[in-house]
């Protein structure tokens, strides 16, 4: 189809002859065609709705002021004779033929697409078309109402984004709730473990008290045994001291006897010398000397008997001293064995007491660790509760924003419906 120049293309009002033709066909009488044509021209050009007359091939044949503003043109010459389809974006170009077919066959139709204005700005529009089969200029065309739905699109996109944010917040809230439940379960497990540790600690304290009582009893018994052993040792020491005193007395007597024997030997030697001299010098005194010698011999025998008795007594004293030493050694060995057994029992008791003390300290450390873990869990629970409160506050704000958006959408839909009715 040939496109007319802008000067030849008429806008929405037809010529006076065409109007008279329409008026005569509709049976309207007493109407000034020129005035009505001018009134119709002004009404169509100045109304707020965007109206364009488009050829079936997409050529713009007429545009009112609102449509010029939507396209971004200052004058009709900028858009008349250009193709509206060339301003479609993406796959919308393929929708034009179907839109023209539906409008031509059913008398009206609509399609939503995106177009570029003269500045290159993309706008989402809704095209509502009405077929113009019998136009006076004979060109096949459509009367199209163009509605800018960019705000509605942006609002819908914003609502979808808000819905996505709401779902993500809900998911985060669900995760926080699940984590809170896990924390509560962990706290309950920690409380149960703390209770078990407390019972174990009480059992350990009771066991330690029992062991302390048993150790005290054992120490008392060992102290009593040590005292009895010490008494026996003191008694044996007293007997040993007495034996030592008796031995010293026997030693003194032995020394005295040795001194007497030495004196007797010396006296015998002196007497033997005197006798020899007397025998050589005085034969006459032989008998008297013999008698004296016999006397000295008797005295020597007596001294020898006394010496033998002293030797027997010395042997008896040595035997008594050896028996006392053996007894002292046996008592000392028994005391040493008892002391070693007592030391071994004391060491075993000390080891058991140290083990019990270590167990109690370990249980106390575990109890302190459980207390620290409980504090950490409480802190994490408080943080989770605070996070949940923040999420709840964000949800409340989001709910208010969604409510405002829904209200704005409702108002926009009402405005669009009113414009559609107009």
Overall domain count: 2
Q: What does the largest sheet look like?
A: 5 strands, antiparallel
Order the strands across the largest sheet as they lie in space: 2-1-5-4-3
Shape, per Cα inertia axes: rod-shaped
Counted by DSSP, the helix tally is 6
What percentage of residues falls in helices of 4 or more residues?
Answer: over 70%
Which key terms come to mind for this protein?
422 residues, 5 strands, 6 helices, disordered N terminus, 74% helix, Beta-Lactamase, 2 domains, five-stranded antiparallel β-sheet, alpha+beta
Describe this protein's structure.
With 422 residues, the protein is an alpha+beta fold. It folds into 2 domains: 24-148, PAS domain (Beta-Lactamase), CATH 3.30.450; 177-285 and 320-410, no CATH class. The chain has 6 helices and 5 strands. The protein has helices at 16-26, 33-46, 65-71, 95-106, 150-281, 286-421; strands spanning 50-55, 60-63, 108-116, 122-132, 141-148. It has a 5-stranded antiparallel sheet with strand order 2-1-5-4-3, sandwiched between helices. Helix 1 packs across helix 2 (33-46) and helix 5 (150-281) runs antiparallel to helix 6. The chain starts with 15 loop residues before the first helix and ends with a helix. Mean pLDDT is 78; it is low at 1-31.
């Amino acid at each position: 189809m040939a496109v007319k120049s802008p000067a030849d293309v008429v806008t929405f009002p037809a010529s006076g002859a065409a109007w008279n033709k329409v008026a005569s066909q509709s049976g309207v009488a007493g109407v000034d065609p020129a005035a009505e044509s001018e009134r119709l021209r002004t009404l169509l050009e100045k109304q707020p709705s965007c109206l364009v007359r488009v050829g079936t091939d997409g050529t713009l044949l007429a545009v009112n002021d609102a449509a010029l503003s939507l396209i971004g043109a200052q004058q009709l010459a900028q858009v008349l004779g250009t193709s509206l389809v060339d301003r479609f974006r993406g796959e919308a170009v393929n929708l034009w033929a179907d839109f023209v077919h539906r409008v031509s066959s059913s008398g009206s139709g609509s399609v939503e697409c995106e177009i570029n204005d003269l500045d290159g700005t993309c706008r989402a529009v809704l095209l509502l078309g009405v077929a113009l089969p019998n136009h006076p200029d004979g060109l096949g065309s459509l009367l199209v109402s163009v509605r800018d739905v960019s705000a509605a699109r942006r609002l819908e996109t914003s609502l979808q984004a808000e819905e996505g944010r709401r779902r993500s917040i809900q998911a985060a809230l669900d995760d926080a709730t699940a984590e809170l439940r896990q924390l509560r379960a962990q706290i309950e497990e920690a409380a149960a473990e703390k209770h078990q540790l407390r019972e174990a600690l009480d059992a350990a304290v009771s066991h330690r008290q029992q062991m302390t009582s048993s150790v005290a009893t054992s120490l008392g018994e060992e102290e009593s045994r040590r005292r009895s052993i010490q008494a026996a040792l003191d008694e044996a020491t007293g007997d040993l001291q007495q034996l030592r005193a008796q031995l010293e007395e026997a030693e003194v007597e032995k020394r005295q006897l040795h001194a007497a024997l030495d004196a007797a030997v010396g006296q015998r030697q002196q007497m033997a010398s005197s006798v020899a001299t007397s025998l050589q010098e005085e034969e006459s005194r032989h008998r008297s000397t013999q008698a004296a010698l016999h006397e000295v011999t008797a005295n020597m025998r007596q001294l020898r008997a006394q010496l033998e008795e002293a030797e027997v007594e010395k042997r008896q004293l040595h035997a008594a001293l050896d028996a006392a030493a053996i007894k002292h050694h046996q008592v000392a060995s028994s005391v040493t064995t008892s002391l070693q057994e007592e030391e071994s029992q004391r060491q075993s008791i000390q080891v058991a007491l140290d083990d019990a003390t270590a167990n109690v300290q370990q249980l106390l450390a575990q109890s302190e660790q459980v207390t620290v873990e409980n504090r950490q869990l409480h802190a994490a629970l408080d943080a989770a509760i605070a996070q949940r409160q923040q999420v709840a506050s964000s949800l409340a704000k989001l709910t208010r924003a969604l409510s405002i958006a829904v209200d704005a959408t409702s108002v926009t839909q009402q405005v669009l419906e009113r414009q559609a009715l107009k």
